[in-house]
Amino acid sequence: MVPAAYLAYMIASTSAAGALIGLLFVSIALRPDDIFGPDAPVRARALAQSSFTGLANAFSVSLLAIVPHDNVGYSAAVVAVICLINTVRLHKRLRHVEYLILLISSVAYLVQFGAGIDLIARPHDTSMLANVCYLIFTSFAIALTRVWVLIQGNVSDTHDRRS
Question: Domain range spanning residue 88?
Fold first, then answer.
C-alpha cells in the first residue's frame, strides 16, 4: 500500500480511470461499426485499443497501489510490460506508424517498469512513487489524446494496412 500522502491520488486516479474506461466503451457503443466493424479502418481499432491500454494501465496500477501491505512496484512493473507489448503490437498494424505517440508511450512504460523495479528493491522510496504518479498522469494524457482523435473521426484508411 502506498503511503498516506499518495493514497488520495491513487484513489482519485482509480476512479477517474474507471469512469474514462466507461466513457470509452460508451463512445465505441455509439459507433461500433466505425471502430470495430468489418469495414472499419485499422487505425480506428488501434486508437480504441491504445486508449484502453493507457486507461487500463492507470486503473490497474492505481487500484493495486491501494491494496494494503502490497508493494506497488510489482504492479507497476508487470502492468508496464503488458502495456508496452500491447503498444508495440498495435503500432505494427499500422502502415503509417505514429512515431511520436509510439515513442512517448514506450518511454513512459519503460520508465514505469524501471520505477516498479526500483520500488520492489526500495519500497519506501517516495521519489520513485512520485514518478509512478506522473507516469499514471502520462497514461491518462496519451489515452485522452487518442480518444479525442477517435471521437473526431480522423481515422482514414489512407495509411492503414488491414490485419
Answer: 4-152
User: Tens digit of pLDDT for each residue in 118-138?
Assistant: 999 998 888 899 999 999 998
- Asked if residue 157 belongs to a domain, the reply is no
| DSSP conformation letters of the chain | ---HHHHHHHHHHHHHHHHHHHHHHHHHHHSHHHHTSTTS-HHHHHHHHHHHHHHHHHHHHHHHHTSTT--HHHHHHHHHHHHHHHHHHHHHTBSS--HHHHHHHHHHHHHHHHHHHHHHH-TT-HHHHHHHHHHHHHHHHHHHHHHHHHHHT---STTB---
Q: What is the pLDDT of residues 13-44, one digit of tens each?
A: 999 999 999 989 988 888 888 888 888 887 78
